[in-house]
Specification:
The complex is a heterotrimer of chains A (177), B (244) and C (354). By secondary structure, chain A is an alpha/beta fold. Chain A contains six helices and six strands; from the N terminus they run E-H-E-E-E-H-E-E-H-H-H-H. In chain A, strand 4 (70-73), helix 2 and strand 5 (91-95) form a beta-alpha-beta unit. In chain A, helix 1 (16-29) packs across helix 4. Chain B has ten helices and seven strands. In chain B, helix 1 (24-37) packs across helix 8. In chain B, 56% of the residues are buried. Chain C folds into two domains: 5-191 and 209-237, Thiamin diphosphate (ThDP)-binding fold, Pyr/PP domains (Rossmann fold, 3-Layer(aba) Sandwich); 242-353, Rossmann fold, CATH 3.40.50.920. In chain C, the strands form three sheets. A seven-stranded mixed beta sheet of chain C has the order 3-2-4-5-7-6-13, with helices on both faces. In chain C, strand 6, helix 6 and strand 7 form a beta-alpha-beta unit. Chain C is globular, with a radius of gyration of 21 Å. The chains are: A alpha/beta (177), B alpha/beta (244), C alpha/beta (354). Chains in contact: A-C, B-C. Chains B and C meet through strand 1, strand 2, helix 3 and helix 5 of B and helix 3, helix 4 and strand 9 of C. Strand 2 of chain B pairs parallel with strand 9 of chain C.
Chain lengths: 177, 244, 354
């Protein structure tokens, strides 16, 4: 049974909250249960941002995550804020475009993703979070690639021009060796 | 004998509770007569305040809502937005409109809310027993300024009509008085004009009516009329301050 | 019910209220409920409704009073400090027997407090935050779907009993996104005419007066008794409560709203470890599900009830204690200031208490 708890963290403007939402939309697409809970504060640009996403086969009771199965850290403060809380055997995805440090823990699977460079390679620097979405889906298998692509297409249905770059970004993230 | 007077059907037969010499009764009648003249029957809602006119819902012969102190313009807004075809009026005193309800008054005016406000300015809190109002004149005595209003302590009396007239929302703002027959006739004309503005969807209209409070002023009815004519009008000049 | 879609709590509640017949919304900005007025401002005109951003919460609730008084389905929403400001109007609405819906997405206090989730408004919601003898029907939904269903039927209940209905959420419920199925749009043109509404059409003996002023003591007392009879009637018919794994429970956690769902995870974790835990989650906070507690405290194997709240020292715990009536120990665990406990925190408290 799937009961995956994900924390996505970074700073405002990195698409952290929308990355969490893409995971949630993808989960709904395949009939799973999900909660997406943002940390919120006074409205401002450039502050820290994080959200908690729980994907499950059953109705999600608590949306609060104390021990994440997966941490997606888009900047350095976020990595250090949450790194020790990740469940042993869990996954940490590190945005290596901004984080040069290596994770010292050896009991977790760590994936370094140069999200910024791959987003530019995809043709749109704003797609760094979608690169990470691809990497996340490949690394965990919680959600299928098809569901994620369907979620991207649905989300951008009113802006069809941006869909190809986002799909490309997703593929680049998904195909990281 | 020939019939010389018929009370307007827009007033009920309930006797007014107002003190002898108080002009609330005249104001009620003027408003009710205008409502009849504009054929408001069947599509009019009044809002009663907190203050001496708190029982206005007993007197106006139409659907009425009793509002919390100062909130009549907000209540009238809710009514008007639901039924834009209704004539909607709020009847408020100076404590209600210009003190606790100043925000509601100013913002209804600024929104250009298509309602009519009848503002009774008698420069005192009547129902609670003669305390200082936001409109109490300099030097005028009340139970909370026993030696007379001291501007250094209590600030200035507020000129509501002049203030609202500076804003874009109001369509018609006038100040009238009831201290003699000719002014009563003018007052009725202003009230008629205010309701006409509403019918023509021009926006917010208010008629400020200088009124008496013999009981709390400690004056006779006649002396109270003189106080309006000789003292109040000096501070609160009559006239039309805005008309679009 | 529609296909499931991912919606934020605040927006889902707004849409559900509209589908339940809300056509007039009067609000004022305050975090963490801003998505409700924002959503309403865009959506209500599409269905022939009206949104007004009032100059204050005080004004907003009085606009609701006016709109409800002429028979419309009107609503407001706010968060704790704003609800404090609305209390005057809520008391008048209750006193004038008007139906309306009020959403409170609670933040932590007192005073300006903070903007993070809290349950510190329980007292001001269920005990009548304004003056005088009155109550509201108060719902404490724990999921977005439950909030949608309660918001959808809230106007029907408000009109049935002629009182304000409050949906008491918190910042977490407002901000969370979950899949929801939305109910069908109600056809409000088919609603019965409200005979009591002061809609402007009456004169003479038929006149309608919306009022809460009763100067004569005997008349006001009769009014108070009439209102209380409504609350008694409501207590018989409207109590809602989730009982989860309570029948053999030795320890019962009780919590409402979002804490109720966190506690549900705790029960699941405890059960996996062989600890017989259960959950009583009141859904109506007024009327309070007193009988549910009375039923379980009669069981010999129940040892303790733990009341968990986002409130320091707790508020609902007083109603729990009244319901338990001294027959079992009632203990407290809570967090405040906007901190939210995890399911693991509750498990730890229970294990340490054993």
């Amino acid at each position: 049974m799937i009961n995956e708890k994900i924390i996505v963290a970074g700073f405002g403007g990195q698409g952290v909250l929308s990355l969490g939402q893409f995971i949630a939309y993808s989960a709904i697409h395949e009939g799973k249960e999900v909660t997406w809970l943002p940390a919120y504060g006074p409205e401002m640009r450039g502050g820290t941002a994080n959200c908690s996403v729980v994907v499950s086969d059953e109705t999600v009771a608590s949306p609060i995550i104390s021990i994440p199965d997966t941490l997606i850290a888009m900047n350095k403060p976020s990595l250090y804020k949450f790194v020790d809380r990740v469940k042993p055997g869990g996954v940490i995805i590190v945005n290596s475009s901004l984080i040069t440090d290596k994770v010292e823990r050896t009991d977790v699977k760590v994936l370094y993703v140069d999200a910024g460079a791959l987003a530019i390679a995809a043709g749109n620097a704003k797609t760094a979070n979608i690169v990470v979405l691809g990497a996340y889906i490949k690394a965990t298998g919680v959600i299928t690639k098809e569901s994620a692509i369907a979620a991207i297409e649905k989300k951008f249905s009113d802006k069809p021009k941006v869909i190809p770059a986002n799909i490309k970004a997703f593929e680049l993230g998904y195909n990281i060796e | 004998m020939a019939k010389v007077f018929t009370k307007t059907k827009m007033l009920t037969d309930v006797p007014f509770h107002y003190c002898p010499g108080c002009t609330h009764g005249i104001s009620h009648r003027l408003v009710a007569e205008v409502l009849e003249e504009i054929n408001a029957e069947g599509h009019v809602v009044g809002i009663a305040p907190v203050g001496c006119a708190v029982f206005a819902y007993k007197y106006f012969n139409c659907d009425m809502l009793e509002a919390a102190h100062g909130r009549a313009p907000a209540v009238a807004t809710g009514v008007k937005r639901v039924n834009p075809n209704n004539i909607v009026f709020a009847y408020q005193g100076d404590g209600d409109l210009a003190s606790i309800g100043m925000a509601e008054t100013v913002h209804a005016a600024i929104r250009g809310e298509n309602i009519t406000v009848i503002f009774i300015n008698n420069s005192i809190y009547g129902m609670t027993g003669g305390q200082m109002a936001p409109t109490t004149l300099e030097g005028q005595k009340s139970t909370t300024c026993k030696s007379g209003r001291d501007l250094t302590v209590n600030g200035n009396p507020v000129k509501v009509a002049e203030m609202l007239a500076t804003q874009d929302g109001p369509a018609y703002i006038a100040r009238v008085s009831l201290h003699n027959v000719s002014n009563i006739v003018k007052a009725k004309a202003a009230i008629r004009k205010a309701f006409r503005c509403q019918i023509e969807n021009k926006g917010f209209s208010m008629v400020e009516i200088l009124s008496t409070c013999p009981t709390n002023w400690g004056l006779s009815a006649v002396a109270s009329m003189d106080f309006v004519a000789n003292e109040m009008i000096k501070k609160f000049p009559l006239g039309v301050f805005k008309e679009v | 019910m529609s296909e499931r879609e991912l919606m934020k709590g605040n927006e889902a509640i707004a849409e559900a209220a509209i589908r339940g017949g809300c056509r007039f919304f009067f609000g004022y900005p305050i975090t963490p409920q801003n998505e409700i007025p924002e959503y309403m401002s865009a959506r209500l005109p599409e269905v022939g409704g009206v949104f007004i951003q009032a100059e204050s919460e005080v004004s907003a609730i009085n606009m609701v009073y006016g709109a409800a008084g002429v028979g419309a389905r009107a609503m407001t929403s706010s968060s704790s400090p704003g609800i404090s400001l609305k209390q005057e109007g809520i008391s008048y609405i209750a006193g004038a027997e008007l139906p309306c819906v009020i959403v409170n997405m609670v933040r932590c206090g007192p005073g300006l407090g903070g903007i993070q989730p809290s349950q510190g408004d329980y007292f001001q919601s269920v005990k009548g935050g304004g003056h005088g003898d009155y109550r509201m029907l108060v719902y404490g939904p724990s999921t977005v779907q439950e909030a949608v269903e309660l918001a959808y039927s809230a106007f029907d209940k408000a009109e049935q009993y002629r009182l304000p209905v409050m949906i008491l959420g918190d910042g977490m419920l407002g901000q969370i996104m979950e899949p929801v199925s939305l109910p069908e749009m109600k056809d409000i043109s088919k609603l019965p005419r409200k005979e009591w509404a002061a809609d402007g059409s009456h004169i003479g003996a038929d006149r309608k007066i919306i009022n809460s002023l009763y100067i004569e003591p005997d008349i006001l007392e009769a009014m108070n008794i009439k209102l209380n009879n409504v609350y008694i009637d409501m207590s018989k018919n409207e109590v809602m409560c989730e009982e989860y794994l309570c029948d053999d429970a030795e320890i019962i956690i009780t919590a409402y709203g979002t804490v109720g769902r966190i506690a549900k995870s705790s029960v699941q974790m405890l059960r996996k470890e062989g600890i017989k835990a259960g959950l009583i989650r009141p859904i109506t906070l007024y009327p309070f599900p007193t009988q549910v507690y009375a039923k379980h405290v009669a069981r010999a194997e129940l040892k303790n009830i733990l009341c968990v709240e986002l409130s320091i020292a707790g508020q609902m715990i007083e109603d729990v204690r009244l319901s338990v009536d001294g027959k079992k120990p009632v203990s407290y665990f809570g967090r405040g200031g906007g901190n939210v406990m995890s399911a693991e925190d509750i498990v730890k408290v229970i294990k340490e208490g054993r």
